[in-house]
């Protein structure tokens, strides 16, 4: 199983926001995209989704920027990944054309159990857990300005 690029970007952006010091200016989407090495257009879509999920607060205008919400910092990583990825089947048994084995196949159930085990492993983790040393100091060392 591989996470979508959007989920990967979302998790990296949330991790970067998790280490923002309250004394520094809130980073913009453009600054976070540059720091994480992702295209601005992708980052903007992901930030919009994270805002919709209540993980990120986006303030516009002078003094605006992005901030991780308390729910984003302390909420379950497993829940967040479920929200971002969805909980659909790992394989496309019902795709067109549907798999001829779908009525009697044990693979679909086995993969569903494996997927749930993956999410269950992430459930107790939070962004706070992910940004401890050695990750946090690396995140803090990333350039905060595009091209910086």
UniProtKB/TrEMBL annotation:
Residue ranges that the Swiss-Prot or TrEMBL entry lists as coiled coil:
none
Keywords, in A-Z order = DNA-binding
* TM region(s), chain numbering: none
| Entry annotated with the keyword DNA-binding | yes
| Any single Pfam family the record assigns to this protein | Rrf2
- Give the cofactors, semicolon-separated: [2Fe-2S] cluster
Question: What protein name does the entry list?
Answer: Nitric oxide-sensing transcriptional repressor NsrR
* Source organism of the structure: Streptomyces luteireticuli
